[in-house]
Amino acid sequence: MIKNSLASISDVAIYPVISLSIFVAFFVLLGYMVFRADKKYIKHMEEMPLTDEVYQKD
Amino acid sequence: MRLFTKPLLSSSSSDSSGALEGFYYDNKIVKAFIIVTVIFGVVGMLAGLTAALQLFWPAANLNLPYTTFGRLRPLHTNAIIFAFVGNGMFAGVYYSTQRLLKGPMLSPILSWIHFWGWQLIIVGAAVSLPLGMTTGKEYAELEWPIDIAITLVWVVFAINFIGAIIKRRERHMYVALWFYIATIVTIALLHIVNSLALPVTLFKSYTLFAGVQDALVQWWYGHNAVAFFLTTPILGLMYYFLPKAANRPVYSYKLSIIHFWSLIFLYIWAGPHHLLYTSLPDWAQSLGTVFSIMLLAPSWGGMLNGLLTLRGAWDRVRENPVLKFFVVAVTAYGMTTFEGPMLSLKNVNAISHYTDWTIAHVHIGGLGWNGFMTFGMFYYLVPKMWRTNLYSVKLANIHFWLGTLGIIFYALPLYWAGFTQSLMWKEFTKDGFLAYPNFLETVTQILPMYMARAFGGTLYLAGTLVMVYNLMKTAGSGEFLAHEYDEAPALNHKLKVGGAFHTILERKPVLFTVLSFVAVLIGGVVEFLPTWLIDSNVPTIASVKPYTPLELEGRDIYVREGCYNCHSQMIRPFRSETERYGEYSKSGEFVYDHPFQWGSKRTGPDLHRQGGKYPDSWHYNHMLEPTSMSPGSIMPAYPWLFDDELNTANTATKINTMRTLGVPYEEGYEDQAVADLTEQAEGISKNLADAKIKVGKEKEIIALIAYLQRMGTDIKNEATALK
């Protein structure tokens, strides 16, 4: 049933167009988010592996 | 736009949370995973070395079916991928996750179910693969009961991990954890889809997909197993252990955000680059190539992020073995992820595909990236968890140089072998004939390179053994800390904390997991839907008919013996190939092939047009003693096929299963199948008798000959019909 309805799609070329649109939108959004990220927060995250033994008691 | 600019109320966990809580990190599970990693690493490398020896010294198979190349190579790849890298990854994940979340895993019981379950799966693989129980799909050879066990154990791991994240005391998830999340969801998806099969018996199944579709699904899996089992978790480990060992924060956390999302988003699309110039639809091949090229950007972003973390700390690389291993690992990652996109270019792939170039490429990744990351991590973890210093820095340095030289001695000869063989395959005389019409000439030419490769592998293994000694001495000199105490403030979930979108995302593990899943799903869906659902992608050829029962049984022997490890069944549309092998392969010829057997390496020639090329007696003698027909051949002999009788007890079930999968055997044919099988076997037995070879019609070799003589012949019938 699904197979038959999809078989009638005349233009499979729509797939690459959809792919490209998703791709571009994805990276524009990602770039924007990263560009606007909070510096203090970034610094906190960066240092996370180094500070995970702060409380450690020998 | 408020979503992106809302100020962060608080960025650190200490001032946004409740009272200080004490808890213990579970080091015992990490220790257990380290021990099995080392054991299975040595076993997997030994299997690889034995397989490498057989390529110039076939007698190294001990004349046993269990240790013959076709069965040993899957054992090697499965052991290295799932037992060595897998267990090593789990060790690192269990260590880093607890510390990054400020708390133990969800449940120690789940941790141990995960541990023992995974080891049982490995034992299952180590027994079943040498016995010839295989699906015939590369890196997914394990049969259906083991596949189900893998799924269950993976779910246990996922619950334990996601549960730990939900219980965490640290508000935000560090980048390493994102990579682990992506690994967990994507491996689940890949494994389940690619393993879909209908069981025939407890140890035999037929994959749900056939021919071109099976190839597409398999290489979507194969490529992304590299991506999400050998790359993303190891990148997560890099983001945790490299800054720790260098005592420097990661070079750029912002870059790591872009690295993560672009890597997981792009990787999944690139699978079809394993199928260039094959019968896969052209658009799918192009899609694979384009995304492979784009993949270079995030891969190198990640590599640079790793290497630049060492800025200002390079002097320490000279003294610290951990950093030495990490630097070579990350460099190897950079090299192999540069080479990958290059190999995805159709003009390069035309030369590289089916040759040892691919083997060299994956071993830069395997030995360099995976191996050295694991070794570096262990040199860091063992002294730390056993509260002591490394027993011998000198021995670690010896290991480093043995390993590095091992990689060079392994890879360079294989690059050389790959170029040489491919150019020989493609060379024509000035009269327009193949310069090397005998395939064997192109094999004997590169045997010295195979010897050099085995030497490289030996060096690498020797280095690993040095590490085993060093780590055991280190552990012996210290005292193992099974439960490590730490304190952190409880996380106040009610507290409103602002931040930009990704900041919020980093504290929403479930949403993060869902979005990662969506990111990897997009590529898969776009790739698969058209091929799965649109008929025109696999043009049908009227003359292509299902296999006879005897041929089907013969094909199962072909799969069991792992012939696909050395022989392709896919003639590419190049003049050099059609001259050598015959008409190029069409997608419609494979519609009844569950599983497809296109192969990925030609240690021997392509077999797709093998049918009818030689008399039955040639195949008989060749399988019994390959050098009798092809002097100098490195193919192993298969004497057991001449002793063992074909088991026809399941023939009827096989016909039924195939019919369920869409192969047009008539209703009720299963009752007649064995009679037809016997009749065809008698014919072959008679042919052989005419050539003065006496052999019972019930032997396995008869079935294999039937299959070999059928291969690629259907299309010839059509050509005859057209005339």
Helix-strand topology string of chain A: HHH
Strand order of the largest sheet of chain B: 1-4
Uncertain runs of chain A: 1-6, 54-58
Question: What is the domain tally of chain B?
Answer: 4
The whole-number mean of residue pLDDT values of chain A reads: 71
Let me know the number of strands of chain A: 0
Average pLDDT taken over every residue of chain B? 91
Main pleated-sheet profile of chain B: 2 strands, antiparallel
Q: What distance separates the N and C termini of chain A?
A: 67 Å
Gross morphology of chain B: globular
The biggest beta sheet of chain A is recorded as: none
Multimer state: heterodimer
Number of strands of chain B: 4
Query: What name does the CATH topology of the largest domain in chain B carry?
Result: Cytochrome C Oxidase, Chain A
- The percent range for strand residues of chain B is under 5%
Integer-rounded radius of gyration of chain A: 23 Å
Task: Give the CATH architecture of the largest domain in chain B.
Answer: Up-down Bundle
Question: Topology of this protein?
Answer:
The complex is a heterodimer of chains A (58) and B (723).
Chain A: H1 2-7, H2 14-35, H3 39-46
Chain B: H1 2-5, E1 20-26, H2 28-54, H3 69-101, H4 108-128, H5 144-166, H6 175-194, E2 197-201, E3 204-207, H7 211-229, H8 232-246, H9 253-267, H10 282-308, H11 314-319, H12 321-343, H13 346-352, H14 356-385, H15 393-426, H16 439-444, H17 447-477, E4 483-489, H18 501-505, H19 509-533, H20 549-560, H21 575-581, H22 616-624, H23 626-629, H24 640-643, H25 651-660, H26 669-690, H27 700-710, H28 714-722
In short:
The complex is a heterodimer of chains A (58) and B (723). Chain A has 3 helices and no strands.
Protein architecture, described:
- The complex is a heterodimer of chains A (58) and B (723).
- Chain A is mainly α and 58 residues long.
- Chain A is built from 3 helices and no strands.
- Chain A has one domain (2-50).
- In chain A, 62% of the residues lie in helices and 0% in strands.
- With 723 residues, chain B is mainly alpha-helical.
- Chain B has 4 domains: 21-173, Four Helix Bundle (Hemerythrin (Met), subunit A); 178-309 and 508-538, no CATH class; 314-491, Cytochrome C Oxidase, Chain A (Up-down Bundle); 549-722, Cytochrome c-like domain (Cytochrome Bc1 Complex, Chain D, domain 2), CATH 1.10.760.
- In chain B, a hairpin with a 2-residue loop joins strand 2 (197-201) and strand 3 (204-207).
- In chain B, helix 3 (69-101) packs antiparallel against helix 4, helix 6 runs antiparallel to helix 7 (211-229) and helix 22 packs across helix 27.
- The N and C termini of chain B lie far apart (70 Å).
- Chains A and B meet through helix 1, helix 2 and helix 3 of A and helix 3, helix 8, helix 9, strand 4 and helix 18 of B.
